[in-house]
Write a structure and sequence with these properties.
With about 375 residues, the chain is an alpha/beta fold. It has twelve helices and 15 strands. It is globular. The mean pLDDT is about 95.
Length: about 375
């Protein structure tokens, strides 16, 4: 029987065990320890930010981002509908309301529709962008860099200048992706807006098992996020807390794994790109990434009119795959939320299949998956 080929699993063949054993030997296993600081420094140096704040998850980083950007209860936050639900749930954590936006051909937020929404559905009142339908302040946009692509940040930042909202980059899938050309040449995903969030979940290009990171060019945001992530502790001896804080700090054991992973980030990106190119050379027409970026190509997308049939066929052949996420504005918790001209996202939801893309995927694995997809397509012609 053909061996099982998973969709996306971690690659733990570096110094992970060595560093974790060291953390255990030192008995620094919780939310204090040198590996946390070391990981924050490594991430900050890699993406060229003044610092970084290690968190328990990318979701925690997004929650802190909303707070640090001053999003208040009753505000509106514009979010994509084509993304994982964790990108949107934190809006509800701060008692704000999401407004769902369509995607463009990059699978990321459609900035033309965002601009139209701001111009036609909103107006400026006392220096604030206000939704005319309900009088809510549109205080922020969460833009998600889907599958390692990068959204149209040049247009988004131009819209931000005109309308004054904060930009939160969900770069949880795009660690290692950066612009090669244009206004933001050399800028990494997550470092262009007011604040960015990274994820180190088990299926990400760099993992700590769980965990995330908040990044920003603004030192005040970084300081505020670190303060809130450690229970808003104003006096560590006498337990004084002047604000509501959170237990959002990454553990030293997680960070030990992460430090080892970051040592190999460029190797991982190279593997992702090589495997992507090999699929294409084998005749599997994968969905493309932007030409003006160096993408980490975290997840590979294959478009088919027989989505469910392909997923089943691959599964029957011991190959794991999945559809793209269910559109969030159609999920029960968000049925009554505002959604603006959702069209293209519906097209991709019905057609995208994610296929195996792990960094420990072998050339033989790529060939096997490719041959299985081609065989499936041949059955459709019969």
């Amino acid at each position: 029987m053909q061996k099982f080929i998973p969709l996306s699993v971690p690659n733990l063949k570096g110094n992970e065990k060595k560093y974790v054993d060291d953390a255990i030997t030192q008995e620094w296993v919780s939310t204090g320890g040198a590996y946390i600081t070391q990981m924050e420094k490594a991430v900050a140096e890699y993406v060229h930010t003044p610092d970084a704040v290690a968190c328990q998850s990318g979701t925690a980083a997004l929650h802190l981002s909303l707070i640090c950007c001053g999003v208040n209860a009753g505000d509106e936050v514009i979010v994509p509908t084509l993304t994982f639900v964790a990108a949107v749930n934190p809006v509800k954590y701060v008692n704000a309301e999401p407004v769902f936006m369509d995607c463009d051909d990059t699978l990321c937020m459609d900035m033309d529709k965002l601009e139209r929404f701001c111009l036609e559905e909103c107006e400026m009142r006392a220096g604030k962008l206000v939704d005319k339908a309900n009088g809510r302040h549109v205080s922020a946009v969460i833009v998600v860099h889907v599958f390692g692509n990068i959204a149209n940040m040049e247009k988004l930042m131009d819209i931000k200048k005109r309308f004054g909202f904060k930009v939160i980059e969900d770069a949880t899938e795009a660690f290692g992706s950066y612009f090669k050309t244009g206004v933001f040449a050399g800028k990494f995903a997550g470092t262009i807006g007011d604040v960015g969030a990274l994820s180190f979940n088990g299926n990400k290009i760099v993992t700590t098992g769980g965990g995330g990171m908040l990044i920003s060019q603004d030192a005040k945001i970084l300081d505020k996020a670190r303060y809130l992530s450690t229970q808003a502790k104003d006096d560590a001896v006498y337990f004084l807390h002047n604000e509501i804080g959170y237990n959002y700090r990454m553990t030293n054991l997680q960070a030990a794994v992460g430090v080892a992973q970051i040592e190999r980030i460029e190797e991982f990106v190279a593997i992702k790109n090589t495997n992507y190119d090999n699929y294409v050379k084998n005749g599997v027409k994968l969905y493309p990434f932007r030409d003006d970026i160096r993408s980490n190509r975290w997840f590979y997308s294959y478009l088919t009119d027989r989505r469910d049939d392909l997923i089943k066929y691959l599964g029957d052949n011991n190959i794991q795959s999945r559809p793209i996420w269910h559109l969030i504005h159609d999920l029960p918790p968000y049925k009554n939320s505002r959604a603006y001209r959702i069209e293209k996202a519906q097209y991709f939801w019905k057609r995208v299949v994610n296929i195996p893309c792990s960094t420990n995927l072998t050339a033989d694995d790529v060939n096997t998956v490719s041959e299985t997809i081609i065989r499936f397509n041949e059955t459709a012609k019969v």
